[in-house]
Amino acid sequence: MSQPPKRHLRVVEDPIQPTVHAREDFEPQHGERTLFATSDPNILVFLDFASIDEAEFLSLLISSKPLHVVDVRLVPRFDVGNLNRKLVFSVFKNAGATYYDLGATVGASQLRALSEKPFDVARVVLDRVLKNPRPLSGPIVVIVDTRQIVPDFVDEFAKAMDSANPSGWQTLRLPALHNSKGLGNRTVVFISHATPDDNSFAQWLSTQLALSGYEVWTDFERLEGGELFWDTIEDVIRNRAAKVVVAASALAQTRSGVLDEVALALSVERSLGLAQFVIPLRIDETPFNEFRANIARKNIVNFHGNWAAGLTQLLQVLENDRVPVEPRDAVNHIGKLVHERLQTKRGLRNTPDPVLVNWVQVRSWPSAIHALSLPVPSIQAGAHARTIDVPNVAFNDVFISFSNAQLFSTALRGLKASSAGSITTREFLSGRWKQYPSIAPHVARRIASNLVRQAWERTARRKGLIPFALASKANCWFLPKDKIDGNKAYFRDQVGKRRFKALVGFSPKRGVYWHFAGEFRPLPNHPETLVLKPHVIFSEDGITPLESAARMHAIRRGFCKSWWNDRWRDLLVAYLSFLSDGNAEFALDAGGVDIMVSGLLTGLECPVSPDESEAVSIADDLTADEDDDDPEIDDDELGFSVWPSTPSEQS
Questions:
Q1: How many angstroms separate the CA atoms of 570 and 402, rounded?
Q2: Peptide bond into 175 cis (omega under 30)
Q3: Helices 199-211 and 330-342, interaxial angle, to 10°?
Q4: Domain boundaries 188-345, CATH class
Q5: Tens digits of per-residue pLDDT, 91-140?
Q6: Structural domain boundaries of the chain?
Q7: In the beta sheet, which residues pair with residue 189?
Q8: Element spanning 388, H or E
Q9: Which of 242-251, 531-540, 640-649 has the lowest mean pLDDT?
Q10: Who contacts 632 (Cβ-Cβ below 8 Å, separation ≥6)?
Q11: Are 304 and 280 in contact (CB under 8 A)?
Q12: What is the reported pTM?
């Protein structure tokens, strides 16, 4: 007897196409020695579970045969593709791997406090989780959040784990890259937000992204007239957007326009397999567990309470996913945004305006770059290289440096380095080193940026500047008291007038010295452009920074609150003049060879200019007594900056 037909209704969805990663997507980064995980007792595999599919995950377990799987995510989830928690745990058991949930061991609150400190996370893993007798053997798979699959986190974590393995750990990140291919003409960062309620945030964010060189699309002027222009929005999201950034305020998550944009973007993300195509931002007090379900599972970037910190994290995501960026177009992007945003408002003229940006350009590179090897086992080579201050970057079994073997050997004091190949710097930056084909152009540019940063710190130290470690772990460098005559640096302004700025001073009211400090940061994908970020450091003796970060911050907010943009500009110009001895360029010591950089801020032209009839006149300098009475400005929030090139009065 035949069975009656089943009449149950069920929802049938189009199957989600998983992201397909090519072999190149798993290419080794700095310090990584294998393309794919193997059953190696000295390997640490860092896995971004949210960015691979089930087939890749199972392949990893089969090929690496891990002994331990340590999950350091704040919210361990395994619902990717057809996987679920029960199935994944069964796979761990069958593969012979022991799974550890770090959050369950130390508690969610402690893990959250540690999540930005990879060294501390690793120490907790060793002390509380992997309590095996030393030496510790692998392979070990560490499951991390997407924001943690970055070189700094991986390197610091592995460094802390080295104490448990005398052979040292090799590291592998999976996947190494996101969206490394397939972007095509997708160059736009689309910002979705509630108009007009969240306009102030979206305007600030679009400006910051444009200053960083990204092409930004917003809908300020398009929606003000009440028209949706949905065809244009749909075309941008479907065909031009590299990322869709959602300012997910509580209000935005109720607006039909925002919901339509998010739904379309998620559809594009699934159909094309674009990892992290949609990036939600938390910009108000909305709890994470109250985000709408279609974005709650994503890595939400937190801007609430600190826009600067959120921007730093967002820029890192865009950089890691290789969203196209062109710093030289930044001012044009800004001019376009401002012109479109304010074309119906007062305050702007359709006249080009020369501006200065806090970028310093590399004028010339050393002629060649070298690969060097040391006559010691590879696990010891890194320790030797770290004992010298010649800029170098470890790559597989060699060290990349502008110094040749002779200069490198001199700095090593006892070991003799040998050449493992050389190439012109121009060819290196183009990724044409046939001897090392895995150094693709983007890898070469990152290596060059690292070498520039090291050369700057070597130069700053030799000029007598003092480093101060920032919360970001980068150093800014300041002049001690009486390093230069009168603590003043002289410079020529845009019209050739000789002026000066004090770079060190004393505040009788607060009983501290203040020191202007500069942080040079090469752009990772554009090593020829260095960002010069301003900071102010305080000391009681004119040399030693205050130990209390809270006191330092409190003094800074009060002392610098009346320092307007023209003062920051002039301080940067004076700082550069000190570094260059008033010349048009100065040398960064790259280890016996020089990287020549400009002694001037970069001048560009903005397509629009302010209407001077509406300008407000602000005095350039204030006395010590006036410092307490003006609106606050927090220099920690100053990153990429643009100023009018017109000089203020001498101070």
A1: 33
A2: yes
A3: 160
A4: alpha beta
A5: 888 888 889 998 888 888 888 888 888 888 888 888 888 876 667 878 88
A6: 23-174, 188-345, 369-453, 456-644
A7: 216, 243
A8: none
A9: 640-649
A10: 557, 558, 561
A11: no
A12: 0.55
